[in-house]
Here is the input.
Amino acid sequence: MQELLERKKGLHRKVLIVDDEFIEREMLGAMLCDLYEIVYAENGAQARDMIRRDRLMLSLVILDLHMPVLDGYSLLEIMRSDGDLRRIPVIVLTSEKEAEARSLQLGAADFISKPYEAPDVVRARVRHSIELAEDSVIIHETERDSLTGLFNKEFFFEYGKRIDEQNGYMAMDAIVLDINRFRVVNELYGRKYGDTVLKKIGSSIHELVQQTGGLACRSGSNSFGIYIPHSSDLKDRLEEFRAEIDQTLDDKSISVRMGIYCDDGSISDMERRFDCARLACHKLRSSYSTCYDFYNAELHSREMHSERLITDMDKALEEKQFKVFYQPKYNISGDRPVLASAEALVRWFHPEFGMVSPGEFISVFENNGLIHKLDRYVWNEAASQIRLWKEKFGMTVPVSVNVSRVDIFDPLLGDKLCGITEQNGLEHEKLLLEITESAYTDNSQQIADTVSLLRDRGFKIEMDDFGCGYSSLNMLTSLPIDALKLDMKFIKNIASSRKDLRLVEIMLDIAKLLEVPVIAEGVETKEQLELLKNIGCDIIQGYYFSKPVPADEFEELIRAELKEDTHAYC
Here is the structure.
């Protein structure tokens, strides 16, 4: 569309004059030829062919209504039914007042009366129609997503609010649609294929909106918003809509999820409705049994709880309601397991709710960006504890701490971590940094660059949850890491499933290729420990040795380790 505008804004805009009377054509041409490039057609059929051929160059059509072969009314109908031709403004030549209403209904922009008005008036009408049409193109370019043709997010909410105000806040349903694992689609099949997927889904959404009323937008890279009048059969319509998308895409590897706020009269604000729909959509991120879910009282209660946790966070940090627990990691490569390090795991002892599970608050803080405050708190607590144990026992126990995605994009991350370790008199490598595998795949180059800088400053990096995200082998070989941590779900069934054991063996082979040790999480039995040792796993953690415990209880493990060392020298 922008190209169309630029081409029309050359030295001379092109105007097509369509009239079967030679003298009429020439008179109009004489009035306009010093301002525009003029071309002529003597009947509607000839004009139709010229318009289709030169549609990107034409700025205006001046059209007589009464012509042989194909009259002006018929040509207007043809142009109105064609998406490309509809954008070209048409000024109708007429001496009949009754023809004006019909021409307007068919899309005419203005009229020039016969006999012709003064040249200045004719030129002003032509200029006004062209500028109005070009302004409309600019507005369309601004308010629409260029790929799907749907509204941009900002215009979507602006027009949606107008709909609400003009219709007395009628009942409207809000739908948030996301494409599952769209980043992986782009990586596997290329961005061009990803754009095709977006266009097809956008087309299906456009059809839904046309059928039901309302409007829709592309609200993010792989997200859409749909705002339609409330209906009691919404569930059936969504089933049909989903089936249509599946048929249009014709690709079983691509699926969508939809969160719906079904208007019950409790919320009148459009943006609040979409917040509710988005919450329902997020709930489906790890669900494969259904592709849509409705916002309900349970989600509302959970949302209110989350908001309360967010509100209480700063006070909880000040009052040290967050307690750091430590789970030991043991090196099993030798004759006996040796305490090698620990992982810092945070617990929240809330004055009203009691102990709040990390599963309740970690994801909440990650979603709104507050996780960086909690991470900083844990880094300080862990570094201080390493120092205290060293002073008390003469033994340094390295501790792994989590580094969230939001931390990685902090340009001062390295300085902050160095400040914490140096303040506690620690070598940088004693504060181990855990980064999840999925973080690497979100923006692999930037994250790899950040991690490289951290390693250059002496920190050790552990890739957490290895195998749970999407990493190509080629990407793995170039990542700066010092250890791989296998998620506990891979360990759970290795004693009873040959397939699971073989999968862990493959991951260990990858680690050997990378020349880094492997840490297995979730080890609960002696049988699991022995299997892991036999296939070459280096370090394990899990309930077999200890659950996560407060610092004072962890000291018993340190004492036991020191006692074993003493016996070894006796």
Notes: The first strand starts at residue 13 and ends at 18. The longest helix spans residues 119-143.
